[in-house]
Amino acid sequence: MSYFDRLKIKWAVKSNFQLIIIFIVFAITGSTSVKVAGPILNYIGILPNVFDDIFFGGILYWILRILIVFPVYQVLLIVFGTLFFQFNFFWNFEKKILKSIGLKRFFKDS
After folding, report:
1. What is the pLDDT of residues 2-22, one digit of tens each?
2. Interacting residues of 9 by C-beta distance below 8 A, sequence separation 6+
């Protein structure tokens, strides 16, 4: 059994075409969220040169950037998943992610 077959079983995906669409959505979402994070950080005034004088400032900047990218990614994943007619898959995927980071109380068990 190939890796893709195991993914299809794990994700309850019915076809190879659906699996390819899911991979495309993940790729587009990842690229877009990274591109969008820069302007968001610029808008709120978090620029790399602001952290130059701070000890471990570069690391702090990247931590803040990741904290901005994460929620942007989650929202874009649902948006792009919907645009590619895979809302149910990505909504269930989001619920698993959000439950795993401690937000179980916001989702009823099904």
Report:
1. 888 899 999 999 999 999 999
2. none
Rounded CA Rg of the chain: 17
| pLDDT, tens digit, 9 for 90 and up, residues 54-88 | 788 778 888 888 888 889 999 999 999 999 999 99
pTM: 0.81
Q: How far apart are the C-alpha atoms of 94 and 37, rounded to whole Å?
A: 20
Report residue 82 as tokens. Answer: 């919907």
| Structural domain boundaries in the chain | 3-106
Return the HEC string of the chain.
CCHHHHHHHHCCCCCHHHHHHHHHHHHHHHHHHHHHHHHHHHHCCCCHHHHCCCCCHHHHHHHHHHHHHHHHHHHHHHHHHHHCCCHHHHHHHHHHHHHHCCCHHHCCCC
66/60 Cα distance (integer angstroms):
10
Let me know: does 74 contact 94? Beta carbons within 8 Å.
yes
